[in-house]
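Annotated sample (chain length 257).
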Amino acid sequence: MRSATPVLLLAAAALALVGCGDAAHTPTSAELRGTQFMATSAKGHAFVEGTPPMLDFRDGTVSATGGCNETRGSYAIRGGRLSLGKDAMQTMMGCGTPLEHQDDWLDDVLDARPSVTVGDHGNTLVLATRDQRITFGRQGPSGGPMPIEGPHWTATSLHQTGAFVAIEGPMAHPTLRIKGGHASFFTGCNAGTTTAKVTDRTVEFGTLVYGSKVCPGYVGRVERQMLELLHGPAQFTFSRRTLMLTRNGIGLDFDER
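Output written by the structure step:
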């Protein structure tokens, strides 16, 4: 019996260490860098069907969407609370009352400097205020899939140096489809093809082959931004509704349609 006691003590200590490693805790910005989360449940709010809120953490920035518009800016975690920076900006698209209300609800939670905790080895994240609590599940390589390949993506807005501009008016919206190592695209003026190698966070586009039609004015501006975006490696983030491609400070947001 005496010889078994150290073994039992070591086993108990090992279980305790595992439990501590998996305990909910306040994350650092470094822990959140490069992660995406999709809301799975909320206290005091019912999600719009098929459109849960999303969070996407990058290097010192976070983007959040309730399903329509996106709020993006710097953030900090102080005293266990998540605080958005003064540079946070929001897109201004109209998406119908339910989604706009959900955007407003998520913005109210973020404006209240919610407490933030992660658990389950980084696969769950919880934001909580006095009367709201949102639980998120991690997406991507360590969580659920990111199906960037296959869907037909339609551009809805472009952004550069923090400014967001919705693509509106009579022009045909740019489109993108990536499948089987190739990408087909439409700039809003010219159609084209290229190769596309998808990794966890980037798409490496090859040589672009596209039409030579001259695109004046706003249509030409959108085309130039899309061609610049496809000229080499682009970073991407993905939610159930929106694909965001960025490269060298410019970007386009796409919806699956």
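Annotation: Confidence is low (pLDDT under 50) at residues 1-21.
Annotation: The CA atoms of residues 83 and 113 lie 5 Å apart.
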